[in-house]
Backbone:
């Protein structure tokens, strides 16, 4: 059964692995997404970081971080990446993560 929860410190390596795996064969990718998530975490810029678990295994992750917009308005967040293990793609994991991320933003 799929569950979604906030990232824990112990999840970092698993998130790195699943993000790299999710984008490994994606033609639209620069294949740096896992490094981007690591860098955002190291700088404390992951405003929302949620993981999806299925039977205790990390199968997905979504990251949201603050962004600047041209008119200097505040409260904007960038999505990305959203990652799902290849064998779990097409099963609603990404949709569930996105819904949970939107709800987490609403609660802020």
Residues:
């Amino acid at each position: 059964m799929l569950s979604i929860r906030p990232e824990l410190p112990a999840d970092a390596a698993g998130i790195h692995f699943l993000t790299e795996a999710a984008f490994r064969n994606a033609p639209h990718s620069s294949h740096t997404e896992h490094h981007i998530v690591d860098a955002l975490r190291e700088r404390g810029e992951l405003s929302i970081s949620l993981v999806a678990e299925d039977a205790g295994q990390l199968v997905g992750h979504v990251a949201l971080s603050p962004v600047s917009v041209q008119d200097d308005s505040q409260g904007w967040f960038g999505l990305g990446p959203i990652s799902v293990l290849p064998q779990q793609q097409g099963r609603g994991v990404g949709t569930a993560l996105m819904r949970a991320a939107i709800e987490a933003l609403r609660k802020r």
The two ends are 27 Å apart (CA to CA).
